[in-house]
Amino acid sequence: xxxxxxxxxxxxxxxxxxxxxxxxxxxxxxxxxxxxxxxxxxxxxxxxxxxxxxxxxxxxxxxxxxxxxxxxxxxxxxxxxxxxxxxxxxxxxxxxxxxxxxxxxxxxxxxxxxxxxxxxxxxxxxxxxxxxxxxxxxxxxxxxxxxxxxxxxxxxxxxxxxxxxxxxxxxxxxxxxxxxxxxxxxxxxxxxxxxxxxxxxxxxxxxxxxxxxxxxxxxxxxxxxxxxxxxxxxxxxxxxxxxxxxxxxxxxxxxxxxxxxxxxxxxxxxxxxxxxxxxxxxxxxxxxxxxxxxxxxxxxxxxxxxxxxxxxxxxxxxxxxxxxxxxxxxxxxxxxxxxxxxxxxxxxxxxxxxxxxxxxxxxxxxxxxxxxx
Length: 373
Ligand SMILES: Cc1ncc(COP(=O)(O)O)c(C=O)c1O
Known about the structure:
By secondary structure, the protein is of the alpha/beta class. It is 41% helix and 13% strand. The chain has two domains: 16-21 and 265-368, Aspartate Aminotransferase, domain 1, CATH 3.90.1150; 31-263, Aspartate Aminotransferase, domain 2 (3-Layer(aba) Sandwich). Helix 4 links the parallel strand 3 (100-103) and strand 4. It is globular and about 60 Å long. The N and C termini lie far apart (46 Å).
Protein backbone atom coordinates (compact mmCIF):
# COMPACT_ATOMS: atom_id res chain seq x y z
CA UNK A 1 0.00 0.00 0.00
CA UNK A 2 1.33 3.46 -0.87
CA UNK A 3 1.39 5.70 2.22
CA UNK A 4 0.78 9.43 1.83
CA UNK A 5 4.11 11.15 2.54
CA UNK A 6 4.54 12.41 6.10
CA UNK A 7 8.30 12.61 6.67
CA UNK A 8 11.44 13.59 4.73
CA UNK A 9 13.35 10.34 5.25
CA UNK A 10 12.76 7.62 2.68
CA UNK A 11 13.65 4.07 3.58
CA UNK A 12 15.19 2.14 0.72
CA UNK A 13 14.71 -1.61 1.13
CA UNK A 14 17.95 -3.51 1.66
CA UNK A 15 20.07 -0.39 2.24
CA UNK A 16 21.51 0.60 5.63
CA UNK A 17 21.76 4.32 5.08
CA UNK A 18 24.57 6.21 6.80
CA UNK A 19 23.75 9.27 4.71
CA UNK A 20 20.96 10.82 6.72
CA UNK A 21 21.79 13.26 9.51
CA UNK A 22 18.52 12.47 11.24
CA UNK A 23 17.89 11.36 14.82
CA UNK A 24 17.19 7.73 15.61
CA UNK A 25 13.39 7.54 15.69
CA UNK A 26 13.37 5.72 19.05
CA UNK A 27 15.25 8.63 20.64
CA UNK A 28 12.61 11.21 19.78
CA UNK A 29 10.79 12.22 23.02
CA UNK A 30 7.24 11.53 21.86
CA UNK A 31 5.67 11.06 25.33
CA UNK A 32 7.65 13.83 27.01
CA UNK A 33 6.76 16.30 24.27
CA UNK A 34 3.06 15.45 24.57
CA UNK A 35 3.28 15.99 28.34
CA UNK A 36 5.04 19.34 27.81
CA UNK A 37 2.26 20.38 25.40
CA UNK A 38 -0.38 19.56 28.02
CA UNK A 39 1.56 21.43 30.70
CA UNK A 40 2.00 24.45 28.40
CA UNK A 41 -1.76 24.48 27.75
CA UNK A 42 -2.41 24.48 31.53
CA UNK A 43 0.21 27.15 32.22
CA UNK A 44 -0.33 29.53 29.32
CA UNK A 45 -3.95 28.81 28.33
CA UNK A 46 -5.06 30.87 25.35
CA UNK A 47 -1.72 32.68 25.24
CA UNK A 48 -0.17 29.54 23.80
CA UNK A 49 -2.48 29.76 20.81
CA UNK A 50 -2.55 33.42 19.87
CA UNK A 51 0.10 35.46 17.97
CA UNK A 52 3.42 35.37 19.82
CA UNK A 53 5.90 38.02 20.93
CA UNK A 54 8.08 39.09 17.99
CA UNK A 55 11.42 37.76 19.27
CA UNK A 56 9.97 34.64 20.92
CA UNK A 57 7.99 34.02 24.13
CA UNK A 58 9.82 35.26 27.24
CA UNK A 59 9.47 31.98 29.18
CA UNK A 60 11.41 30.20 26.44
CA UNK A 61 13.99 32.91 25.85
CA UNK A 62 14.62 33.38 29.59
CA UNK A 63 15.08 29.65 30.09
CA UNK A 64 17.31 29.42 27.01
CA UNK A 65 19.56 32.29 28.13
CA UNK A 66 19.93 30.72 31.58
CA UNK A 67 20.55 27.30 30.05
CA UNK A 68 23.23 28.55 27.64
CA UNK A 69 25.04 30.04 30.67
CA UNK A 70 27.38 32.03 28.47
CA UNK A 71 26.18 35.56 29.10
CA UNK A 72 23.55 35.54 26.31
CA UNK A 73 20.82 38.11 27.00
CA UNK A 74 17.14 38.33 26.08
CA UNK A 75 17.80 41.33 23.81
CA UNK A 76 20.34 39.24 21.88
CA UNK A 77 17.93 36.41 21.05
CA UNK A 78 15.38 35.80 18.30
CA UNK A 79 13.46 32.52 18.07
CA UNK A 80 13.35 30.93 14.61
CA UNK A 81 12.02 27.87 12.83
CA UNK A 82 15.32 25.99 13.28
CA UNK A 83 18.93 26.76 12.36
CA UNK A 84 18.17 26.57 8.62
CA UNK A 85 15.54 29.27 9.02
CA UNK A 86 17.90 31.26 11.23
CA UNK A 87 20.59 31.15 8.53
CA UNK A 88 18.12 32.00 5.77
CA UNK A 89 16.80 35.01 7.69
CA UNK A 90 20.23 36.33 8.63
CA UNK A 91 21.56 35.78 5.10
CA UNK A 92 18.56 37.48 3.52
CA UNK A 93 19.08 40.54 5.73
CA UNK A 94 22.83 40.76 5.27
CA UNK A 95 23.69 39.45 1.79
CA UNK A 96 22.54 39.91 -1.76
CA UNK A 97 23.54 39.53 -5.41
CA UNK A 98 27.13 40.64 -6.09
CA UNK A 99 28.31 39.86 -2.54
CA UNK A 100 30.79 37.15 -1.63
CA UNK A 101 29.95 34.98 1.37
CA UNK A 102 32.97 33.16 2.76
CA UNK A 103 32.38 29.60 3.91
CA UNK A 104 34.44 27.02 5.67
CA UNK A 105 35.00 23.94 3.49
CA UNK A 106 34.19 21.16 4.06
CA UNK A 107 31.10 22.28 5.90
CA UNK A 108 27.34 21.71 6.12
CA UNK A 109 26.38 21.22 2.48
CA UNK A 110 22.79 22.42 2.75
CA UNK A 111 23.98 25.76 4.12
CA UNK A 112 25.54 26.33 0.68
CA UNK A 113 22.06 26.19 -0.85
CA UNK A 114 20.56 28.54 1.74
CA UNK A 115 23.38 31.03 1.21
CA UNK A 116 23.24 30.78 -2.59
CA UNK A 117 19.53 31.66 -2.43
CA UNK A 118 20.61 35.24 -1.61
CA UNK A 119 22.26 35.56 -5.04
CA UNK A 120 25.69 35.97 -3.42
CA UNK A 121 28.72 33.97 -4.59
CA UNK A 122 30.27 31.51 -2.14
CA UNK A 123 33.99 31.31 -1.66
CA UNK A 124 36.12 29.03 0.47
CA UNK A 125 37.64 30.70 3.54
CA UNK A 126 41.44 30.54 3.46
CA UNK A 127 43.17 28.38 6.03
CA UNK A 128 45.35 30.97 7.74
CA UNK A 129 44.27 34.22 9.42
CA UNK A 130 46.76 36.22 7.31
CA UNK A 131 45.33 34.82 4.08
CA UNK A 132 41.82 35.48 5.33
CA UNK A 133 42.66 39.12 6.03
CA UNK A 134 44.35 39.40 2.63
CA UNK A 135 41.34 37.96 0.82
CA UNK A 136 38.85 40.27 2.55
CA UNK A 137 41.01 43.28 1.64
CA UNK A 138 41.60 42.39 -1.99
CA UNK A 139 38.41 40.66 -3.08
CA UNK A 140 36.87 43.86 -4.40
CA UNK A 141 33.32 42.83 -3.49
CA UNK A 142 31.26 43.20 -0.34
CA UNK A 143 31.85 40.30 2.07
CA UNK A 144 28.85 40.35 4.42
CA UNK A 145 29.98 37.42 6.56
CA UNK A 146 31.84 34.15 6.99
CA UNK A 147 29.80 31.02 7.76
CA UNK A 148 31.29 28.15 9.76
CA UNK A 149 30.42 25.29 12.13
CA UNK A 150 33.34 25.46 14.56
CA UNK A 151 32.05 22.96 17.14
CA UNK A 152 31.56 19.26 16.27
CA UNK A 153 31.24 20.29 12.64
CA UNK A 154 29.17 18.67 9.96
CA UNK A 155 30.69 16.67 8.19
CA UNK A 156 34.03 16.38 10.04
CA UNK A 157 32.97 16.15 13.68
CA UNK A 158 35.98 18.35 14.42
CA UNK A 159 36.14 21.53 16.49
CA UNK A 160 38.37 24.55 16.11
CA UNK A 161 40.88 24.75 18.93
CA UNK A 162 40.89 27.61 21.36
CA UNK A 163 43.84 29.48 19.82
CA UNK A 164 42.33 29.31 16.35
CA UNK A 165 38.99 30.57 17.68
CA UNK A 166 40.63 33.59 19.27
CA UNK A 167 42.73 34.28 16.16
CA UNK A 168 39.68 34.12 13.93
CA UNK A 169 37.72 36.52 16.14
CA UNK A 170 40.68 38.91 16.18
CA UNK A 171 41.19 38.91 12.39
CA UNK A 172 37.45 39.23 11.75
CA UNK A 173 37.25 42.17 14.14
CA UNK A 174 40.22 43.90 12.48
CA UNK A 175 38.79 43.38 8.99
CA UNK A 176 35.19 44.21 9.93
CA UNK A 177 34.10 40.71 8.90
CA UNK A 178 31.02 39.29 10.63
CA UNK A 179 31.26 35.64 11.70
CA UNK A 180 28.11 33.52 11.44
CA UNK A 181 28.62 30.58 13.79
CA UNK A 182 26.36 27.58 13.30
CA UNK A 183 26.32 26.05 16.80
CA UNK A 184 23.84 23.28 16.10
CA UNK A 185 25.81 20.40 17.67
CA UNK A 186 27.14 22.11 20.84
CA UNK A 187 25.12 20.03 23.29
CA UNK A 188 25.84 16.65 21.73
CA UNK A 189 29.20 16.24 23.43
CA UNK A 190 30.42 12.77 24.37
CA UNK A 191 33.69 13.49 26.20
CA UNK A 192 34.44 16.45 28.44
CA UNK A 193 32.80 19.73 27.56
CA UNK A 194 32.27 21.57 24.29
CA UNK A 195 34.71 24.39 23.54
CA UNK A 196 33.41 27.92 24.20
CA UNK A 197 31.51 29.34 21.26
CA UNK A 198 32.86 32.16 19.10
CA UNK A 199 29.74 33.99 20.30
CA UNK A 200 30.84 33.69 23.93
CA UNK A 201 34.52 34.38 23.28
CA UNK A 202 33.72 37.53 21.33
CA UNK A 203 31.41 38.84 24.05
CA UNK A 204 28.60 38.91 21.50
CA UNK A 205 30.29 41.41 19.23
CA UNK A 206 31.08 40.63 15.59
CA UNK A 207 29.50 37.16 15.82
CA UNK A 208 26.02 35.86 15.05
CA UNK A 209 25.30 32.45 16.59
CA UNK A 210 22.67 30.08 15.22
CA UNK A 211 21.17 27.46 17.54
CA UNK A 212 18.67 24.66 17.11
CA UNK A 213 16.47 22.26 19.04
CA UNK A 214 16.50 19.90 16.03
CA UNK A 215 19.31 17.69 17.31
CA UNK A 216 18.64 17.92 21.04
CA UNK A 217 14.86 17.54 20.99
CA UNK A 218 13.39 16.94 17.52
CA UNK A 219 13.80 18.33 14.00
CA UNK A 220 10.05 18.28 13.47
CA UNK A 221 9.63 21.08 16.03
CA UNK A 222 11.22 23.48 13.53
CA UNK A 223 12.57 25.52 16.42
CA UNK A 224 15.90 27.28 16.86
CA UNK A 225 17.28 30.72 17.49
CA UNK A 226 19.65 33.51 16.50
CA UNK A 227 21.94 35.22 18.99
CA UNK A 228 23.20 38.54 17.71
CA UNK A 229 23.74 42.16 18.65
CA UNK A 230 20.43 43.83 19.62
CA UNK A 231 20.35 45.91 16.42
CA UNK A 232 20.29 42.79 14.23
CA UNK A 233 17.71 41.19 16.54
CA UNK A 234 15.66 44.37 16.06
CA UNK A 235 15.90 44.02 12.29
CA UNK A 236 14.74 40.40 12.50
CA UNK A 237 11.84 41.35 14.76
CA UNK A 238 10.95 44.17 12.39
CA UNK A 239 10.60 41.95 9.34
CA UNK A 240 7.26 42.34 7.64
CA UNK A 241 6.32 38.73 8.08
CA UNK A 242 6.98 38.87 11.83
CA UNK A 243 4.87 42.00 12.04
CA UNK A 244 2.13 40.17 10.18
CA UNK A 245 2.44 36.70 11.73
CA UNK A 246 3.95 37.37 15.18
CA UNK A 247 6.80 35.40 16.75
CA UNK A 248 7.96 32.36 14.78
CA UNK A 249 6.32 29.02 15.58
CA UNK A 250 4.80 30.37 18.79
CA UNK A 251 2.84 27.39 20.15
CA UNK A 252 5.86 25.11 19.74
CA UNK A 253 8.10 27.73 21.35
CA UNK A 254 5.77 27.92 24.36
CA UNK A 255 5.73 24.11 24.64
CA UNK A 256 9.53 24.15 24.48
CA UNK A 257 9.49 26.57 27.43
CA UNK A 258 7.64 23.93 29.48
CA UNK A 259 9.94 21.17 28.20
CA UNK A 260 12.95 23.25 29.30
CA UNK A 261 11.83 24.72 32.61
CA UNK A 262 10.47 21.39 33.90
CA UNK A 263 13.96 19.84 33.70
CA UNK A 264 12.87 17.32 31.05
CA UNK A 265 15.22 18.87 28.48
CA UNK A 266 18.32 18.33 30.62
CA UNK A 267 17.40 14.72 31.39
CA UNK A 268 16.61 14.07 27.74
CA UNK A 269 19.89 15.52 26.46
CA UNK A 270 21.82 13.45 29.03
CA UNK A 271 20.06 10.33 27.67
CA UNK A 272 20.85 11.36 24.09
CA UNK A 273 24.52 11.79 24.90
CA UNK A 274 24.69 8.26 26.29
CA UNK A 275 22.83 6.80 23.32
CA UNK A 276 24.75 8.65 20.61
CA UNK A 277 28.07 7.88 22.34
CA UNK A 278 27.24 4.17 22.07
CA UNK A 279 26.23 4.62 18.42
CA UNK A 280 29.42 6.53 17.67
CA UNK A 281 31.52 3.85 19.36
CA UNK A 282 29.79 1.07 17.43
CA UNK A 283 30.40 2.78 14.09
CA UNK A 284 33.98 3.76 14.94
CA UNK A 285 34.84 0.18 16.00
CA UNK A 286 33.32 -1.33 12.85
CA UNK A 287 34.95 1.20 10.49
CA UNK A 288 38.29 0.78 12.27
CA UNK A 289 38.33 -2.91 11.38
CA UNK A 290 38.84 -1.72 7.77
CA UNK A 291 39.97 1.94 7.72
CA UNK A 292 41.60 4.48 10.03
CA UNK A 293 39.13 6.97 11.48
CA UNK A 294 39.24 9.97 13.80
CA UNK A 295 36.91 9.76 16.79
CA UNK A 296 34.71 12.87 17.01
CA UNK A 297 34.12 14.18 20.54
CA UNK A 298 30.62 15.30 19.64
CA UNK A 299 28.06 15.69 16.86
CA UNK A 300 26.70 13.03 14.56
CA UNK A 301 29.30 12.24 11.93
CA UNK A 302 32.48 10.38 11.02
CA UNK A 303 34.56 11.92 8.24
CA UNK A 304 36.38 8.98 6.73
CA UNK A 305 39.36 9.17 4.39
CA UNK A 306 39.09 6.47 1.74
CA UNK A 307 42.16 4.37 1.04
CA UNK A 308 44.34 4.57 -2.06
CA UNK A 309 42.77 6.28 -5.03
CA UNK A 310 39.14 5.69 -4.05
CA UNK A 311 36.56 8.29 -4.96
CA UNK A 312 33.52 8.72 -2.70
CA UNK A 313 31.37 9.58 -5.69
CA UNK A 314 32.36 6.46 -7.62
CA UNK A 315 32.11 4.25 -4.55
CA UNK A 316 28.47 5.17 -3.91
CA UNK A 317 26.71 3.05 -6.61
CA UNK A 318 28.51 -0.22 -5.77
CA UNK A 319 28.08 0.55 -2.07
CA UNK A 320 24.33 0.87 -2.48
CA UNK A 321 24.32 -2.41 -4.40
CA UNK A 322 26.13 -3.92 -1.41
CA UNK A 323 23.42 -2.53 0.90
CA UNK A 324 25.05 0.54 2.46
CA UNK A 325 24.87 4.25 1.67
CA UNK A 326 26.69 7.44 2.72
CA UNK A 327 27.25 10.99 1.48
CA UNK A 328 30.32 11.50 -0.75
CA UNK A 329 32.70 14.15 0.58
CA UNK A 330 32.43 16.39 -2.49
CA UNK A 331 28.95 17.45 -1.35
CA UNK A 332 30.46 19.35 1.59
CA UNK A 333 33.09 21.24 -0.37
CA UNK A 334 32.53 24.55 -2.07
CA UNK A 335 35.25 23.99 -4.68
CA UNK A 336 34.44 21.41 -7.36
CA UNK A 337 36.19 18.10 -6.92
CA UNK A 338 37.44 18.74 -3.36
CA UNK A 339 36.65 16.11 -0.77
CA UNK A 340 36.20 13.20 -3.16
CA UNK A 341 38.68 11.16 -1.12
CA UNK A 342 36.33 11.33 1.90
CA UNK A 343 32.86 10.15 2.80
CA UNK A 344 30.56 11.23 5.61
CA UNK A 345 29.08 8.47 7.71
CA UNK A 346 26.30 9.41 10.10
CA UNK A 347 25.90 7.48 13.34
CA UNK A 348 22.75 9.33 14.41
CA UNK A 349 20.04 7.42 12.62
CA UNK A 350 20.63 3.70 13.08
CA UNK A 351 20.96 1.54 16.19
CA UNK A 352 24.41 0.08 17.03
CA UNK A 353 23.86 -3.33 15.41
CA UNK A 354 22.85 -1.75 12.09
CA UNK A 355 25.79 0.66 12.24
CA UNK A 356 28.14 -2.28 12.71
CA UNK A 357 26.58 -4.16 9.81
CA UNK A 358 26.64 -1.07 7.55
CA UNK A 359 30.34 -0.41 8.19
CA UNK A 360 31.15 -4.08 7.68
CA UNK A 361 29.42 -4.04 4.29
CA UNK A 362 31.34 -0.90 3.31
CA UNK A 363 34.70 -2.19 4.55
CA UNK A 364 34.28 -5.55 2.82
CA UNK A 365 33.29 -3.85 -0.43
CA UNK A 366 36.32 -1.54 -0.35
CA UNK A 367 38.63 -4.49 0.29
CA UNK A 368 37.41 -6.19 -2.89
CA UNK A 369 37.56 -3.21 -5.25
CA UNK A 370 40.55 -2.07 -7.30
CA UNK A 371 42.09 1.07 -5.80
CA UNK A 372 42.50 -0.54 -2.38
CA UNK A 373 46.09 -0.50 -1.14
C1 LIG B 1 25.45 22.30 10.76
C2 LIG B 1 23.98 22.23 10.62
N1 LIG B 1 23.26 23.36 10.65
C3 LIG B 1 21.92 23.34 10.52
C4 LIG B 1 21.25 22.16 10.34
C5 LIG B 1 19.76 22.19 10.18
O1 LIG B 1 19.21 22.53 11.42
P1 LIG B 1 17.65 22.77 11.61
O2 LIG B 1 16.98 21.44 11.53
O3 LIG B 1 17.56 23.39 12.97
O4 LIG B 1 17.18 23.68 10.54
C6 LIG B 1 21.94 20.96 10.32
C7 LIG B 1 21.22 19.69 10.12
O5 LIG B 1 21.73 18.73 9.63
C8 LIG B 1 23.35 21.00 10.46
O6 LIG B 1 24.07 19.88 10.41
